[in-house]
Amino acid sequence: GKLAQARKRQDALIDALRPMSDRVTLTLVGSADESIAGIDVAHRDRLFEAAAQNEWITILPDVRFADMPTLYASHHICVLPSEREPLGSAPLEAMAYGTIPVISQDAGSAGYIVPGENGLRVDMSAHRALEAVMSRLVDDPALRVRLSGGARRTAQTDLSPARFLQRIDAILA
Asked: Which residue pairs from 155-158 have beta carbons closer than 8 angstroms and sit at least 24 positions apart in sequence?
């Protein structure tokens, strides 16, 4: 997400993962563009400060779209903890690589998630809910394997280009 938009809630993700920081790494990916709407430079600066102080956090600003498949494939989980997110497509894109989506239940893309089958939803308004979801994933390798397979199957079926064309054809008919 955009690194300078506080509504993307990367800070909440850092806080949720802090108790597990000896067992996880976090890669924050997003635009560093300062011309975006809703810019919060202080938020962005806090993210970079957290990365500078914690070796388990890496920030990759302005990753080219063509490089995202490699990034998705090299990670186990793609988290979208945003507030007021109309869609949020990154976790859906990541599913094609078996990357598990964890999406704020209020995000538009949460509708593609069948909790426990192809990803998890999280109520970002509930105290420590993101920490609980992430802890569950970190502590349960069998759950990660099951959700990864479900994410990949969803990407190959319901979210596939062929299915998209079928839906467009149905609308046009």
From this structure: 155/92, 155/95, 155/96, 156/96, 158/112
